[in-house]
Amino acid sequence: MEQATTPLVGPPRIGQGLRETAREYTGYWWLSLVAGITWTVISVVILQFDAASITTVGVLVGVMFMLAATQSFVLATVPGTTRWVSALFGALFLISGVICFISPEGTFAALADLLGFFFLIVAVRWMVLAFMERPINPLWWVGLISGILMAILAFWTAGQFFIEKAYVLLVFAGVWALMEGIDSIVRGFAMYRAHRVL
Questions:
Q1: Residue-range definition of the domain harbouring residue 76
Q2: In this predicted model, what pLDDT tens digit does every residue of 73-116 receive, in sequence order?
Q3: pLDDT tens column, 128-150
Q4: Quick check: is 13 in a domain?
Q5: What's the domain count of the chain?
Q6: Rounded Cα gap, residues 130 and 51, in angstroms
Q7: Which residue of 53, 93, 127, 142 has the lowest C-beta tally within 10 Å?
């Protein structure tokens, strides 16, 4: 009687095609690390402001949305079946950034009202990415927790009235950048570990 070549218990073996795709995807670990460091530096700069004008807040939040759009569009170029998810979020962030740049002074009240919605978009993106990366990222739960915290922040922000509180908006922008930075750095190291294993 022949011995079976595959074990009956244990995790299933990864197919060669899937392994190559995963290895190529995780090869971009350094992009996530660079993005995380950039977001962290941005958060430190933003949180150094002790006062901010309406225009400053509008422009800074617009820049942050443009950076998030760029990061999503770069992720959309990575091979895989879920590229459309990154492209969709990239388009949403791009539209949000353009809205912020159109007229920061005239749209500050609208920005304050919509900030909760914008944060909710970020929260959903983080949670979707966490579940998408679950098979290859043992720290996927960090992204999920960040997404849940951002969703709570989004709902709390939506209930506030910020027309005369530019500083509060600035603090929220700094917290968002810091959470994005930490999440990207953790994702980068997890991708590096998975790349070495593959």
A1: 20-197
A2: 887 887 665 778 888 888 988 998 888 788 666 556 666 667 77
A3: 888 888 887 787 888 889 889 88
A4: no
A5: 1
A6: 35
A7: 53
